Amino acid sequence: MKQMVNLEIANEILAERVDSIEEEYVNLTDAHKRMLSKDVISTINQPPFDRSPLDGYALKSEDTKGASEENPVVLEIIEEVCAGSYPTKELKNNMATRIMTGAPIPKGSDCVIRQEDTSEKDGKVYIYKELNEFQNYCFEGEDLKKGQIVIKKDTEINFGEVGVIASLGIKEVSVYKKPKVAILSTGDELLDIGEKLIPGKIYNSNIYTLSARLKELNTEPIILGISGDDIEQTARKIENIIDEVDLVITTGGVSVGKKDIIKDVMKKINADILFWKVDIKPGTPVLCSYLKNKLIISLSGNPAASSITFELLVRPLLDKMVNKKDSKLKRTSAVFDDSYLKKSGKRRFLRGELSYSQNGPVVKLTSSKQSSGVLSSTLKCNCLIDVPKGSTGLEKGDKVEIIYL
Ligand SMILES: Nc1nc2c(c(=O)[nH]1)N[C@H]1C(S)=C(S)[C@@H](COP(=O)(O)OP(=O)(O)OC[C@H]3O[C@@H](n4cnc5c(N)ncnc54)[C@H](O)[C@@H]3O)O[C@H]1N2
Ligand code: MOO
Questions:
Q1: Structural domain boundaries in the chain
Q2: What is the mean pLDDT of the segment spanning 385-390?
Q3: Which of 29, 34, 114, 330 has its CA 20 to 30 A from that of 8?
Q4: Pick the CATH number of 56-127 from 1.20.1260.10, 2.170.190.11, 3.30.70.1450, 2.60.120.10
Q5: CA–CA separation, 11 vs 180, rounded Å?
Q6: How far is CA 316 from the centre of its chain?
Q7: Is the pLDDT of residue 386 over 80?
């Protein structure tokens, strides 16, 4: 068993054991934020017909030669076409079709004059302006052509993609399934929310933090609840769920105390232990194991530690499962607008609040209380500050590297 690996090595060891997961068809209305698993190919031209971008008159541009305010050209109105209807008459010289925005342009016409440059009387339209061929004219397929790849697979479906797919009339899209992640909290001290607090006990916040975050990341959390510090019971819960999920997360019991049972649980279920402890703080004593081609990530019980190591170790795996192109942690540099004295020489991840000033990204601590057991400093936290090994602290104005959450 490897011990005290650095973060990047830990990421590699875990990523090697994860592949993209199965695909499924979902309704477009349920596809937002999912990852496309097949190219979207246009089944129609968009727009599906030549159409008018204006309310006005469709006509032949050659008929407008010499037209002016003083000397209008007069054309006979042969038909009226609104959006949703279709012209029935072909346009010949000296004719015009009254047309509304979005309506199909009739055959024989090669331009549309806007209503404001005309007047209408007794079935005739007076044209006060010359027009060029295809002026104010939207062509069939000018946006998207039938058969064209409109959106490549492995793209996240955001509102723009939803709109474009809807414009093609496509009702269902192929996406990667949502990764299913089981979460189990261990610890005799844990109570579920709503239970009466009694001496020595605390509420299980980890399972709620992680499940909310998993939902935010468009995965499917499967909450296994609390398991006491009992090897048999914990082993059984993991064995019972492992075939149904893509990943298991446990929290608590990974340090060296009497009740730190997770290593024994892994031995009991014959999981391969990949490594124990990552050379970072918080969250050092994480244990990562592998059983039946699934990873079991056992995070520290300390609330802030489990939440931070989830971001550093688990999130990239979830991204990889749905083939996100860049499944690595997304970083940028920012100016530190706070002060922080670092006690240990370890690489440290601090909870930060990132904002943007005229001079670029600026980050400050969410709270001066940054210890592993303090959860309130996750409030307002939108990034992690990566403080390198050996650093003795940070001063106002220092350039720091941050990881987006
Ligand atoms: N002698 C040593 N003691 C400790 C070491 C060490 O190296 N030598 N490491 C410390 C570090 S660092 C951490 S981090 C913790 C990790 O402990 P565990 O992962 O075994 O977690 P627990 O002991 O079960 O819990 C730690 C802490 O968090 C509370 N907790 C647990 N689960 C939850 C939950 N679901 N929701 C909210 N809070 C939870 C628990 O009550 C403890 O207070 O070990 C240090 N000790
Ligand atoms: O590694 Mo622990 O989470 O720092 O206290």
A1: 2-22+177-321, 24-46+142-176, 56-127, 331-404
A2: 96
A3: 34
A4: 2.170.190.11
A5: 20
A6: 13
A7: yes
Q: Which residues pair with 184 in a beta bridge?
A: 225, 250
Ligand 2 pocket: which of 276, 280, 299, 300 to mutate (most atoms <8 Å of CB)? 300
**Exposed / middle / buried, residue 359 (Cβ in 10 Å: 0-12, 13-18, 19+):** exposed
**Cβ neighbours of residue 244 under 8 Å, at least 6 residues apart?**
180, 182, 222
Residue nearest to atom 17 of ligand 1 (CA): 255
Fold of 24-46+142-176: Molybdopterin biosynthesis moea protein, domain 2 (3.90.105)
Residue 109 Cβ inside 6 Å of ligand 2? The answer reads: no
The per-residue pLDDT for range 99-147, each reduced to its tens digit, is: 999 999 999 999 999 999 999 999 999 999 999 999 999 999 999 999 9
Cα 286 to ligand 1 centroid, rounded to whole Å = 10
Q: Which token pair is 23?
A: 């695909």
- Report the separation in Å between the CA atom of 320 and the middle of ligand 1, taken as the mean of its atom positions: 29
Q: Ligand 2 centroid vs 17 CA: distance in angstroms?
A: 25
The mean pLDDT value of the chain amounts to: 96
Listed in sequence order, the DSSP H helices in 168-321 are 206-216, 231-241, 262-268, 303-309, 315-321
Instruction: Report pTM.
Output: 0.90
How many Å separate Cα 314 from the centre of its chain? 16
